[in-house]
Amino acid sequence: MSMDDKVNLSVATNCCRGARALGAFFLVVGASLMFFSAPARGQAAPSVVQSDVKLVIGGDTIKNNSVGTLSVVGSSLQFASAKKKMEVEASSILDISTNEDSRQNITGAAHFATMAIPYGGGRVLALFSHKVDVLTTEFKDANGGYHGAVFVLPQGQAAPFKKQLVGMGAKASVPLAEPAPANK
Amino acid sequence: MRYHTRAVTVIFPLVVACALFLMVGSVCGQTSSGESKSAQKFSASSIQIEPTDAGDVPVPAEFRMAVYENLITQIEKTGKFQHVYRSGDKDAASAPDLVTLHTTAKSFTKGSQKKREVTTVSGSTSLILAVHITDHAGQTLVDRDVQGKVRFLGENLRATYDFSKKVANIVRESF
To answer: Which of A146, A161, B104, B137 could cross-link B130 (Cys pair, CB 3.0–4.6 Å)?
Structure first.
């Protein structure tokens, strides 16, 4: 074996070691990505979802009184209407509160049509209403600007949102009411 | 002679009444023109809206938020300011002639849409808030009590829209 052959062999061995180290590096990085991406995908699935929610006011780019789906995705509250979407990070929520209210069963253009019913028939129809939950959030944007958003949900559906968001770091001046223990 | 006396008794009270009417009218005219002179116009390129201070008045959160959001929309619509900043906005600190709008609750009555539409005489929702606009030094430029209400048609939160429209009109008059 000549001196040149020895040099070539050592270069080849070094190359093999480098390739192995590079392979091991990619293996470690790939494995870590695989392990860490699995729970991330799990977080992205919405944990609380409610359709037919009305955003009464406070959706910056979304029109007032838009109807859409409210959900908690990852660590944020998300409202998606047919065209647009708004997202509020739970940690940026300064206060979240729930309240009860009632809404007329007949609204919009049909409501005005009822006014034409003779002998006060429209007034009778105004008696029909249903209870709703009102979810109010106060939050700040990336620039520190204060915002408020008011959502109207079906009765009893606001509390799960509040509970979930408070668990994720949202602040609430009024704590969630614990359900009363059942009498035996 | 009798006719002369009658004419005096009929015409004299009429003349006095007319004179009194004219005097009252001129006095009213003077006060109204005086008020229009005192309604000073201020100048500012930007305004910051602070959230409503409920104080001791039990104003529900949705009403406070609706007042705040409606105020931002309505004041933007006036076109009197280049920038309408939300409370806490970091960019407001660098605004040279910033004025700040504060609202403090004075009274709140939550009505009922059902009652309003069935009876038309009861169930109105009403809120009265003190509106202060202060300049950069904290000096009060505007100090007024404004009422927002919904009497006949519409949901209770519409009172906040009525309130904000009135505040926007005050801003139009003052700036």
So the answer is: B104
Cβ(A154)–Cβ(A178) under 8 Å?
no
pLDDT digits (tens, 9 = 90+) for B102-118: 999 999 988 777 666 66
Distance from the Cα of A118 to chain B's closest Cα (Å) equals 14
- Tell me which chain B residues have a C-beta less than 8 angstroms from the C-beta of A104: 113-114, 117
> Helix, strand, or coil here: A107?
coil
User: Are B34 and B50 in the same domain?
Assistant: no
A160, exposed or middle or buried, with CB in 10 Å at 0-12, 13-18, 19+?
middle
Residue A129's pLDDT band, with cuts at 50, 70 and 90, is confident
Answer whether B48 touches A (CB < 8 Å). no
Q: Tell me how many domains chain B contains.
A: 2
Domain covering A48-167: architecture: Roll (2.30)
**Residue B54 contacts A, CB cutoff 8 Å:** no
CB contact under 8 A, A102 and B114: yes
CA of A115: which chain B residue's CA is closest?
A: B117
Residue A17: predicted pLDDT: 59
Same domain as B27, residue B50: no
Instruction: Kindly state whether residues B103 and B166 are assigned to the same domain.
Output: yes
The Cα B99–Cα A37 span in angstroms is: 49
Q: Which residues of B touch A138 (CB under 8 A)?
A: 51, 61, 65
Nearest to B63 by CA among B54, B55, B74, B72: B54
Question: What ipTM was estimated for this complex?
Answer: 0.74
Q: Are residues B35 and B50 in the same domain?
A: no
- Is residue B31 located within the same domain as residue B12? yes
Contact residues on chain A for B74, CB-CB shorter than 8 A: none
Strands in chain B per DSSP E: 46-49, 83-86, 98-109, 125-134, 140-150
Question: Would you state the pLDDT for residue B92?
Answer: 94
Cβ contact, residue pair A149, B155, below 8 Å: no
Query: Model confidence over B114-144: pLDDT tens digits?
Result: 666 666 666 778 899 999 999 999 999 999 9
Q: Enter the pTM of the model.
A: 0.72
Q: Are residues B62 and B5 in the same domain?
A: no
